[in-house]
Amino acid sequence: MGKKKFSVAVVGVGMVGKKMVEILLERRFPCKSLKVLATRRREEIISGEKFMVEETSADSFQGIDIAFFAGTEGEKGAGKAFARQAAVRGTVVIDNGSDFRMDPDVPLVVPEVNPQALKNHHNLIANPNCSTIQMVMVLAPLHQAFGLKRVIVSTYQAVSGTGRQAVEELNRQIHAYISGNALSGEVYPHPIAFNILPQIGTLSEEFPGYYTEEVKMIKETRKIMVLPELLVSATCVRVPVFNGHCESLTVELEKEATPEQAREILRKSPGIQVVDAPEKSEYPLPVRASGSDDVLVGRIRRNPAFPHGLDIWVAADNIRKGAALNAVQIAEEMLRQGLL
Q1: What is the value of pTM for the model shown?
Q2: Which end of the chain offers a freer environment for a tag, N or C, measured as fewer CB atoms within 10 Å?
């Protein structure tokens, strides 16, 4: 990556913001300085280091080369308020929120899938939705090898995707259940402990009956893969798991592909780990994916309902690859391409 060093800012100190700081330190991103911004001034310990968090303002980005906006779903504000201002002033902004993802002038990037899209950036790059990231990591190599015709996905999404308050709420509800007390909560419309909720986001007007998380998966997948007519259907479900999203994928390919051929393609794909020995009860699990940089793929088998169809099970750490890591990898890819 060369010897050049950068003044870096991370906006947000929730689960994703802290993870961004951790990963920047872990991967030794060439930071000349690392500033942490949030809604109020305070001190935070991240990865054993003390950071004095500053209150975010337009002036916070003066002299900043790269700014990572944590912007987890449901915590919008900073990206909309400051991202474009920072970009106009010369800061390269990598935004994890959903405000700019479908803007035709803003690249929506998973570095292993569409790094070429970064060439058209105007100092503003969008990080895709966590569920979309892990899905396109699997779809892209299969599409390159066999062509992609149709995708049907059901997700099983951990509460960490909602944020720290949801993690704490699940923990409280588990203890309440064990103690024989009534389950109550404020984050979700129903208790999440020992339950599943087929609702993530709000109802969409554009796709009647679909919630916004499902629409994101449809539209973002088409944009990232440059397949505007791709047939995609999604059902997104919140499950009582602390961290790690899982997905059940059904893909219909243009050309015949055996499960063995698909496994071989995926084994050779960067950022993917094939865990597929069902006879030994070995398959992707959220507890195994949590803390891993890789997207885990398994249960690859023929789908009997579609010609050239495969069924696939996927798991990934939604806070790492689904958010913070992907954002840092975008910056690393920009360095590789000489765009920074």
Answers
A1: 0.95
A2: N
